[in-house]
Batch of 2 targets.
Target 1
Amino acid sequence: MSQTSVLRSNDSRELVEDWILNLRKPCIIRDCAVGECLTKWKPDYMASTVGHKPVSVHESSSNRLRFLKKNFTYVVLPFAEFIQKASCFSRAGCGDCAGDDCDRRYYYYRAVADDVRNTPSDFRRDFPSLSPDFTVPSFLQPEKIFSCVLRCSSADLGLWLHYDVLDNVLVQVRGRKRAILFNPEDAEYLYLSGDKSLIHDPENVDLEEFPLFVKARPYVYQLEPGDVLFIPAFWLHYMISEDFSVAVNIFWYNLPRELYDQKDTYGNKELQPYFRAAQGVDRALKQLEGLPIDIQRFYMRMLRSKIDKALGLSRDRSA
Amino acid sequence: MSQTSVLRSNDSRELVEDWILNLRKPCIIRDCAVGECLTKWKPDYMASTVGHKPVSVHESSSNRLRFLKKNFTYVVLPFAEFIQKASCFSRAGCGDCAGDDCDRRYYYYRAVADDVRNTPSDFRRDFPSLSPDFTVPSFLQPEKIFSCVLRCSSADLGLWLHYDVLDNVLVQVRGRKRAILFNPEDAEYLYLSGDKSLIHDPENVDLEEFPLFVKARPYVYQLEPGDVLFIPAFWLHYMISEDFSVAVNIFWYNLPRELYDQKDTYGNKELQPYFRAAQGVDRALKQLEGLPIDIQRFYMRMLRSKIDKALGLSRDRSA
């Protein structure tokens, strides 16, 4: 496990900005002013304040959700009922039964806009009754914010390893959370398919199936209510809610807007230059298609070593 | 050392063609009818027949010629004088001295056309007095021949590891030769720079400098006068003349002509589709240049895994 870093709100704003803008490493920022949500957002309060607004949530009998080989279903529930189902048991059990014997269902809610295809999520708009309780951390520039996502989860629930293309902070409001992050430099050890990893649970990895995983260096962050975790764009992350958990996470444009996919409402579509680069490589591979297969393979390796060479040069520049 | 294969001229033409067209593996074809050169081309005969035509030859104090870090010079000599210098000593020494004490110079001649920039070599045109002594092996189609190159070498001289983009046969006319070949699938273990390897002598490799070389599987062929070695396009080859050595090697178009670089007179310029593919990859890498270096590197690896994926698929197809 690699070292983690904790800043405090009474550290200078320059220090926080230095981490975000220059160091570009994850860190916990503690004691931020994030509003009354820290004391108010108990399950009963949230249920009664939001009421029966229907929400689409993830439901599973597994406590480690997989996106790539889905082991959950989407169900639509009134928000109050979802909160009741998600909060009715602690990590140890529901009180009515002895933990593992329980026919427990795990729930996870990631808020999306009503018009999810065109509009990024913003809980301040979609949950107006909760909005006054939350304050965006002062080190973020409001005009750069892309989305502001409410997330609620059952206790003991882990969520798939993935990355986003935007910087974000996770404001942990209620419950404890364990965050496992990986540097994008380790991506080649993490068996990615798109923005998600084929590795189901980075705390329990089958090394026969995923032998390269031993080379990946996890950064582990233990979050308490009120903690703010900075997750730089492209850092892979796996999140385990240890208790019933409520969080708000705020994505922002850390690069010029025109670099992002303009239709992306989640923050996980690749940057535009990569789209064009990937098309270029696809076309390059297509050029070789008329050749005998052994010559194609020979030239594919030569193309690959062009990229290896560029990686070597860029490592020297970034070192 | 991997297995080698020897065919004989009284094997059916179909068998030879099957190796060349379908198996695409190197082989020795023995007892081919290649003309009176086998008995006639002794040094004195060649010198007196060709006379004093000036030729540009490689001269070195080393018996292992390097192209990439050149350890030879080009000198222009009358052909008869070159033949005398190249043939005056055997592997053991020149007779006048005790081998290694000798201030020996090694010579190598690779015939080129007078107009080398525009015309491939053809010794049948440029050495008309030798031409009647040589017969092109009957399994080759005359209309596909690209070049027909006379090569003469001192005893004990090794020549750089490289590949050509055309199929070719080496007709060993005089002296013995040792040929060390590598499958193009092993190219990634051979430290190529363009069509040539940085490995100076594959029989004496510094494994600290070239650790991957241990994974490469050499195919070793021991050629006697009269032997014809088929070297498929892209197979890497290193040649050691054990005696004063004369050979003719014939390159031919094994793919449609438009795939080749039309300005190539040596047979070692990459095929046209690769030029276009390489440009495509260069442009793809350029697309990423505006991004921060860590994101560039992340996306370069994604581009590389696109190629890895294509290599995986093509391996399945070729298996």
Note: Residues 8 and 114 of chain A are 36 Å apart (CA to CA).
Target 2
Amino acid sequence: MRDTNRAWYFAARPDGEPDADSFELRETERPEPTSGELLVRVNYLSVDPYMRGRMRDTESYAEPWDVGDILKGGIVGEVVESESDQYDTGDLVTGEGTWADYSVVDADDVAPVDPTVADLPAYLGVLGMPGRTAYFGLLDVGEPKPGDTVVVSGAAGAVGSVVGQIAKLNGCRVVGFAGSDEKTEWLTEDLGFDAAINYKTTDDYRTALDEVAPGGVDVYFDNVGGPITDAVFTKLNVDARVAVCGQIAHYNDEDVPMGPRKLPMLIAPRAKVQGLLVGDYATRFGEASERLATWVATGDLSHRETVVDGLENAPDAFLGLFSGDNIGKQVVQVSTPSS
Amino acid sequence: MRDTNRAWYFAARPDGEPDADSFELRETERPEPTSGELLVRVNYLSVDPYMRGRMRDTESYAEPWDVGDILKGGIVGEVVESESDQYDTGDLVTGEGTWADYSVVDADDVAPVDPTVADLPAYLGVLGMPGRTAYFGLLDVGEPKPGDTVVVSGAAGAVGSVVGQIAKLNGCRVVGFAGSDEKTEWLTEDLGFDAAINYKTTDDYRTALDEVAPGGVDVYFDNVGGPITDAVFTKLNVDARVAVCGQIAHYNDEDVPMGPRKLPMLIAPRAKVQGLLVGDYATRFGEASERLATWVATGDLSHRETVVDGLENAPDAFLGLFSGDNIGKQVVQVSTPSS
């Protein structure tokens, strides 16, 4: 018999706010790669807000998790068994794996990781799916022009922190909403945001925006929804663009949430509001990865990861996303990289 | 002293639903054109939903009316005095004038009218601002492709009726929402809509859409807002486009109206929602006018006007827009054309 493997399984669909009852850690036999596959020892596991959608029993862009399924997510790890010519044991790879100590992946579905470019967790953040989401969402949907005022909600998260910095590289004035003074200080002092609003200690977002974005809003990159978005929509300039990347404020709602109707607000500014999924840009991932890596190397793009230690704490790391525990990208360290 | 002139003035800003108290008919001296101007005997006057916005004391795309101002609007009429080389007395022109028997206009701001192409009221509808709004809103914002399913709210109105027919010319399946059986029959029997839903006698718009648009919605041209729009948003296909042209259901709301939050609905279909003002396409009005006139001439584009007789009834004609009294374009006949 092969060695054992710990893995998290989907135990129950949550109603509203998920909790530990949705997760079950099991010890099973370590999986075995077949032809074209790799067995990867997971070093880091990604937990992401979009996974809340996979907990629902409805078809959507991400395949729903069935109760009893092993949980899936982005990983970085080391190849320990290879049934593919593409990778040798010892190689570092990233791609979609499982919430487990060891994960079997198809060699065609992973990408190599170069630890000299950035630390491994960065491959789940700025150099991974969140970084690419920020890149295409801001540039292709938001279409920022120099001099534009760009507002970002969830600005200290994995996507928002990259959005704001790319907007600065584009010559924009950048304002971020985030949920703590530590976060807003990171945005303005380390990432170069022009202003940041702590939405938990600010009463009136519209007045706050009048102060830091007196010329109105040209681009709004929305990761959050709710009252922040309600306020920003009252400040849209003519020809404003809104990229709807996430709506984390509403992911745990069981009923359709109600709020101020926004369509009447779009006519006078002729604003454009567009939903965004990074998968639509798959043919251009190489472009994004190359530019993001260059900006990281030159220091134009700072990044930060919040690391929770131990596979056993993965559910807590996921649940913490909804209370904003993370600064930058939230990852789980499952094992220590061997080199 | 010159002859007299009857004209409507803005008497009071309404709260909520406007009524006759906002309008005052006065008899004054007939205005006199100065250099470059024309005195036009008004034959037909246009009343339009967007005018409700001009009754508010807020800057917007259309200049607000001040209390005491003479009311403005589109007119078709006959030049009776000319202080311009561009037009002679007896010429027919259209442009922005006043709610009056006689209106002074700048010769540079009006366009000639050819009564052999269409009857005069059509120049305030299919061949006027509403027709151009339909043309650019559908083609430039809605971007219809053959085989797309296009849904139109306010489908029997001045704009919606043209939108649906242009969508048919583009090879689309077209579904309209309208407020009476007479209207829905007009849409399907005379205008070639594939289906029409009487929103006043239908309880469940989502189920109704499932029947007539089983493949979902690719383009939604929204003139109305409210529950119709709430239902259509649940049916948006991947890459759907929503043109927000009007929101007549909300024009009389005094507070910001509440409704189901729609931004979370945009992510999975990556839908685009865009506000639209026809004035942005001013440099291409010639293109639209030429094509619309051709389609009218060939019979590809049907049109209908609801004519209220008498300047004294202009406020009633305007107020009737909000209860859907009109089929096609609502106009007021102020005088009989002299030829």
Note: Chain A touches chain B through 32 residues (CB under 8 Å).
